[in-house]
Amino acid sequence: MKVLVPVKRVVDANVKVRVNADNTDVDTANLKMAINPFCEIAVEEAVRLKEAGVVSEIVVVTVGPKAAQEQLRTAMALGADRGIHIQTEEALVPLSIAKLLNAVQKKEQAQLIILGKQTIDGDNNQTGQMLSALANMPQATFASEIKVDGDSLAVTREVDGGLQNVTISLPAVVTVDLRLNEPRYAKLPNIMKAKRKPLETLSIDDLGVSLKLHQTVLKVTPPAERKAGIMVASVAELADKLKNEAKVI
Amino acid sequence: MAILVLAEHDNASLKLDTAKVVACGQAIGGDVDVLIAGHECAAVVDAAKQLAGVRHVLVAQSVQYANGFADNVAQLIVDLAGDYEHILAAATSQGKDTLPRVSALLDVAQLSEVVEVVSADTFVRPIYAGNALATIQSHDAKKVLTVRTSAFDAVANDGAADVVAIDKVFDSVTQFVSQSLSKSERPELGAASVVVSGGRGLGSSENFVILEKLADKLGGALGASRAAVDAGFVSNDLQVGQTGKIVAPDLYIAVGISGAIQHLAGMKDSKVIVAINKDPEAPIFQIADYGLEADLFEAVPELTDLL
Ligand SMILES: Cc1cc2nc3c(=O)[nH]c(=O)nc-3n(C[C@H](O)[C@H](O)[C@H](O)COP(=O)(O)OP(=O)(O)OC[C@H]3O[C@@H](n4cnc5c(N)ncnc54)[C@H](O)[C@@H]3O)c2cc1C
């Protein structure tokens, strides 16, 4: 079966971003960029399913600027077979991205779509669920384990109270959580091989999708700074401060 | 203008989150109705009726809604959406699962993890693990929001809303198999006024016992860093952070936690933060009100005795 894995280019998880001087956005100039960590876990899971003989083809797709091709190459170095790049310089809301992915899915007819539960830039946690609704496919979010069994998929979900096991029928959309797997590092020969894998570039118009303007970002501001705290010298001092200064106990 | 709030519950009790989302609804302004989709959930209905300022409690009861699955609950909300301009849910696993589907079916964008209401169409939400706050104006006719409950105070319980039965039943395509929910006598993370969290520094699940003793002494909840959960010291539902739970208790005690951006994202709005760490350079000290450089295995039992 074919798996579709949408991925996103984001600021690397180890970088602390700052708001720009005119409070219109965060300043991402010259920051290290990477594939969103959750997307990487999604790619890894698809590769493992292929290694297990369950999956025959892995297609990665991204919506983003020209440079996002780097992340498609990264995914292909990890084991994806081909890439689709929907090129746009605009920052789109998750609903618009889900519409574009749905248009890709209409062509690709993948049996399974695996994607990260959220990206670490917008922290939206929306795209997979929206895609599932638009494509009218069952969804299982926040997966920490998935098993394909014929036409059905068993998923362990991380929910607020603990873990929940569900089954859904394929084709389906799964969003992945952190503990699904630990992604491998791409090996140099695979990085070289990935450069020759097919990569198709499309525009939004090519997909025949018309998008709407849903919202305007009025401003982006830094969060309130916490006032500097103190170091205490002993456990006794800590207990005293908590009781008599902070009065929290 | 009316506002629909999806209730957060487990058929047995109504979660405090709902009272906080209702508060967000009241900040937007307008009649607030609460929707309960569930099964054999009379106690939940009774609790929702008492939420201050709520107009109607809409109750859709069916075995199909027993597990609160996103697919059919979203259909139910879309079916009711005609009467509402705002649709709200807590940014819990159920709210996050369900509302994006509602948005997509209504063809409107969603605003996730709203922390502040500026006006009926403008909201503030954190981005980049809370390192920035975006003020966003929605142009959609209907606004669909998940609400970060740690940013709102719960409404009181002195209301007397009426109950409206909703008969429409949509079938779920998700099959429930089983669940393993953590059982604990301690308060829930999101509702606790004290949270004691442990990180990789605890070293093992057995060692978490020393934190449990401290938490119990303070009547607090237990939390953890991702590293502690990944290592199997504690279960996933205790993870605090960008991708776990967001908490803002009166007192947050971080023990053996270094203070990665992703962890801070989940607790930096706590009123008082205490950090106990043996590494003086640990970034957690930069946001702690009280920092103690010490070996946790000595300091935590001593602190427990002193309190
Ligand atoms: C996409 C993504 C999402 C993430 N989401 C989250 C999230 O939601 N929540 C989260 O917490 N993390 C999250 N992380 C992980 C985060 O980046 C850190 O790796 C993690 O928080 C580290 O956990 P820790 O502080 O327990 O471990 P470490 O960073 O290893 O810190 C352990 C600390 O314990 C101290 N210590 C050790 N022994 C002792 C002792 N005997 N006495 C006192 N102190 C001691 C050490 O000095 C050290 O500071 C995420 C990462 C990514 C990439």
Automatic annotation (TrEMBL), chain A:
GO molecular function: electron transfer activity
Top-level taxon of the source organism: Bacteria
Record-annotated Electron transfer flavoprotein alpha/beta-subunit N-terminal domain positions: 23-211
Pfam families documented for this protein: ETF
Keyword field: Electron transport, Transport
GO biological process, one term: carboxylic acid catabolic process
CC cofactor: AMP
Gene3D superfamilies hit by this protein: HUPs
Task of the protein: The electron transfer flavoprotein serves as a specific electron acceptor for other dehydrogenases. It transfers the electrons to the main respiratory chain via ETF-ubiquinone oxidoreductase (ETF dehydrogenase).
Similarity section: Belongs to the ETF beta-subunit/FixA family.
Subunit record text: Heterodimer of an alpha and a beta subunit.
Protein name per UniProt: Electron transfer flavoprotein subunit beta
UniProtKB/TrEMBL annotation, chain B:
Cofactor binding mode and count: Binds 1 FAD per dimer.
Keyword terms of this UniProt record: Electron transport, FAD, Flavoprotein, Transport
Binding site for FAD: 200, 225-226, 239-243, 256-263, 277
Record has Iron as a keyword: no
Biological process, per Gene Ontology: fatty acid beta-oxidation using acyl-CoA dehydrogenase
Annotated family: Belongs to the ETF alpha-subunit/FixB family.
Function noted in UniProt: The electron transfer flavoprotein serves as a specific electron acceptor for other dehydrogenases. It transfers the electrons to the main respiratory chain via ETF-ubiquinone oxidoreductase (ETF dehydrogenase).
Protein name: Electron transfer flavoprotein subunit alpha
Organism: Shewanella benthica KT99
